[in-house]
């Protein structure tokens, strides 16, 4: 099925550990995004990539890095995890589907930093 | 920066009741989107609005793009238990190469059978 695939679905890290969250889309979308979702805060943009080869900071980029590996894949890296980065992370891609323009989200990665 | 105020934050209703929620913005958008998020899942697009004054339906859901371009409304008629979830509004200025979504903080809907 067409969509956005995120891995892993769950992860527990110790403070200071590093990890990379993976995201891939098969809808041939140009743009991809990483959001974090915290209770009562809605979805906040961490980084985005408007097209292959470009990345830009969103609202809350500190503590994260991203790589747009190719048109399909956009990864999010935590170099030194902190408890404040405990959150649910969503990857999304965007583009036109017929007459509709919208974002398609993955099912999320639930990250706990202890 | 742009901010969206979504209200109410939560709703507890009886099955069969109608539901209304809205979003207001400090600045204008040219696109409004409404999403629903089920527990443990990512948001799923419900309705997209592209023109001021536009009224669009998707089954029991109806959404409107406000005339001022600073607000949008979502109505759900005759609610059922599977309507439970968090509903997010999102505004965007799409054009040129790309637009970025600004999300409201969500309305959590609970439906009592």
Summarize the structure.
Chain A is an all-beta fold. Chain A has no helices and eleven strands. In chain A, strands 2, 4, 5, 6, 9, 10 and 11 form a seven-stranded mixed β-sheet that branches. In chain A, strands 1-3-8-7 form a four-stranded antiparallel β-sheet, with no helix packed on it.
Question: What can you see in these coordinates?
Answer:
Helix content of chain A is 0%, strand content 56%. Chain A contains no helices and eleven strands. In chain A, β7 (65-68) and β8 form a beta hairpin. Chain B has no helices and eleven strands. In chain B, the strands form two sheets. In chain B, strands 2, 4, 5, 9, 10 and 11 form a six-stranded mixed sheet that branches. The mean pLDDT of chain B is 90.
- 3D shape of chain B: globular
Mean pLDDT metric of chain A: 91
Tell me the radius of gyration of chain B. Answer: 14 Å
Distance between the termini of chain B: 41 Å
Low-confidence stretches of chain B: none
Distance between the termini of chain A: 35 Å
Salient structural properties:
heterodimer; A: 114 residues; mainly beta; seven-stranded mixed sheet; B: 113 residues; six-stranded mixed sheet; five-stranded antiparallel sheet; 0% helix; 53% strand
What is the topological layout?
The complex is a heterodimer of chains A (114) and B (113).
Chain A: E1 4-7, E2 10-13, E3 19-25, E4 31-38, E5 42-49, E6 56-57, E7 65-68, E8 74-78, E9 87-97, E10 100-105, E11 109-113
Parallel strand pairs in A: 2-11
Antiparallel strand pairs in A: 1-3, 3-8, 4-5, 4-9, 5-6, 7-8, 9-10, 9-11
Chain B: E1 4-7, E2 10-14, E3 19-25, E4 31-37, E5 44-49, E6 55-58, E7 61-65, E8 71-76, E9 85-92, E10 102-103, E11 107-112
Parallel strand pairs in B: 2-11
Antiparallel strand pairs in B: 1-3, 3-8, 4-5, 4-9, 6-7, 7-8, 9-10, 9-11
């Amino acid at each position: 099925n067409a969509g956005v695939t995120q891995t892993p679905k769950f992860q527990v890290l110790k403070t200071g550990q590093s990890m990379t969250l993976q995201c891939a889309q098969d809808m041939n979308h140009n743009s991809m995004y990483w959001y974090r979702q915290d209770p009562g805060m809605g979805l906040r943009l961490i980084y985005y990539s408007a097209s292959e080869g470009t990345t830009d900071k969103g609202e809350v980029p500190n503590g994260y890095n991203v790589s747009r590996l190719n048109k399909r894949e956009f990864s999010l890296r935590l170099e030194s995890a902190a408890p404040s980065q405990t959150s649910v992370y969503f990857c999304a891609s965007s583009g036109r589907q017929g007459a509709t323009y919208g974002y398609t989200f993955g099912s999320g990665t639930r990250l706990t930093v202890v | 920066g742009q901010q969206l105020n979504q209200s109410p934050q939560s709703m507890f209703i009886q099955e069969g009741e109608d539901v209304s929620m809205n979003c207001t913005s400090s600045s204008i958008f040219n696109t409004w989107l409404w999403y629903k998020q089920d527990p443990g899942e990512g948001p799923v697009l419900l309705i997209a609005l592209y023109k001021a004054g536009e009224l669009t339906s998707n089954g029991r859901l109806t959404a409107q793009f406000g005339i001022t371009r600073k607000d949008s409304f979502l109505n759900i008629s005759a609610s059922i238990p599977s309507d439970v979830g968090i509903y997010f509004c999102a505004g965007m200025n799409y054009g040129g190469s790309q637009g970025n979504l600004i999300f409201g903080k969500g309305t959590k809907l609970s439906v009592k059978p």
